[in-house]
Design brief:
It comes from Prunus avium (Cherry). By secondary structure, the chain is an alpha/beta fold. It has 13 helices and 13 strands. The protein has a domain of 237 residues: NAD(P)-binding Rossmann-like Domain (Rossmann fold), CATH 3.40.50.720.
Length: 399
């Protein structure tokens, strides 16, 4: 009897049988990263995710068939993209490298088990592979418009994107790769941030020619990094500095529209694969006009201080010089970000012959109204302050 039990036990503990049983439970592991998997050529599907099996009515409790690894999902654009993916019944893998609080707000956006936080290290290839192991879609939102002591422009905006594309190429089960870049990205730009974004686009398309590249303009929304900063500065100091004369043209876009464009590109029949889209809002503003819209919304009288470009760069220079020379982290730049100052020296608008929202079947929102309504929090007398004539009279008009 003991001999029989030993033989049976030995049979179930042999490497071949144990590995085959694991393959039956997790069939993707050996297929994606097995030794027999050739690491040559792109493996992206040619027809997008249109053939995925879908179950349910299409809401949060349904199954869209999409398992998306969204790198950079804890950022500004990430929360809106995760919400839209979860709303259609997709499973979203949320890589994070900070504390447990960094992804807590995303857990509520999907059904039970649909939002999966996964701790990873962007400098550890194995941890990135662990995030991608069960994914069939990869979306890269990683980006930063200022440098820190630990991460340079080139590493965050270029090297990480190239690494994600390389791993996706070796994966074998990734059907779509979407790279979110930045409007104005160019190898000849005076901004290192925009040059790094352009290099990332080139690297991603070199590794995965079927990847989709989206270039959104300045994002506007509740957590944005332009109108919020302007309004806070104006409330605190009573004026807003304008770099140059404020005549630079920009084409800001509502963040929800950009998230919708990513989902639209993801859901199509593959027509967006291998293409570059420039996503700008329906209106072109000068920096001065956008600041006027901000002051109008917070119901404050506009006060500006025009800062010539050389002086603005001189004000921002000390942080750039001391960044890697002091043994402690420096505060993040708000208004006077040297790289952004260089980027704003030229107009940043959608090109004439580029693919835009209309090619994805979308119409972007105008900014005036709901997209900038979050600025009412800066009104000094509450949301209704300034609605009467007496509150709108300029103090200079009194005798």
């Amino acid at each position: 009897m003991q001999a029989i039990s030993k033989r049976v036990g030995h049979q179930y503990l042999t490497p071949s049988s144990s590995i085959s049983s694991l393959k039956s439970i997790y069939p993707v592991c050996d297929h994606y990263y097995g030794a027999d998997r050739p690491k040559y050529g792109s493996t992206l599907a040619t027809k997008g995710v249109g053939h995925l099996v879908r179950k349910g009515t299409g809401g949060r409790s349904s199954v869209s068939g999409i398992v998306a690894a969204v790198f950079g999902s804890t950022g500004f654009l990430g929360r809106y993209l995760v919400q839209q993916l979860a709303k259609m019944g997709s499973q979203v893998l949320v890589p994070f490298r900070g504390s447990e609080d960094s992804h807590r707000h995303l857990k509520l956006m999907g059904d039970l088990g649909q939002i999966v936080p996964m701790k990873y290290n962007p400098r550890d290839e194995d941890s990135i592979k662990a995030v991608m192991a069960k994914a069939n879609v990869v979306i890269n939102l990683i980006g930063r418009d200022y440098e820190t002591r630990n991460f340079s422009f080139e590493e965050v905006n270029h090297s990480m994107a190239e690494q994600l594309a390389t791993i996706s190429k070796e994966h074998g089960g990734i059907m779509r790769f979407i790279q979110v870049s930045c409007l104005g990205a160019s190898s000849s730009s005076p901004s290192r941030f925009l040059r790094a974004k352009a290099a990332a686009e080139e690297a991603v398309l070199r590794e995965l020619p079927e990847a989709t590249v989206l270039r959104p303009a300045v994002l506007i929304g509740t957590e944005d990094r332009i109108l919020n900063r302007w309004a806070f500065f104006a409330k605190k100091y009573g004026f807003l500095p304008l770099i140059g004369d404020g005549s630079t043209k920009i084409q800001p876009v509502y963040v929800v529209d950009v998230a919708g464009a990513i989902v639209a590109a993801l859901k199509d029949d593959g027509s967006s694969m291998g293409k570059v889209y420039e996503l700008g809002g329906p209106e072109v503003f000068t920096v001065h006009q956008l600041a006027e819209l901000m002051f109008e919304t917070i119901r404050e009288w506009p006060h500006y201080v025009k800062v010539p470009l050389p002086i603005a760069k001189a004000i921002a220079a000390p942080r750039e010089i001391l960044l890697n020379k002091v043994p402690f982290p420096l505060p993040n730049p708000e208004i006077f970000n040297r790289d952004q100052i260089l980027a704003q020296a030229t107009d940043t608008v959608v090109s004439e012959n580029s693919l835009t929202f209309s090619d994805l079947g979308l119409v972007p929102h105008k900014l005036k109204g709901y997209p900038v309504e979050f600025l009412i929090q800066y009104r000094k007398g509450g949301p209704n302050y300034g609605s009467t004539v007496s509150e709108r009279v300029s103090p200079d008009a009194w005798p």
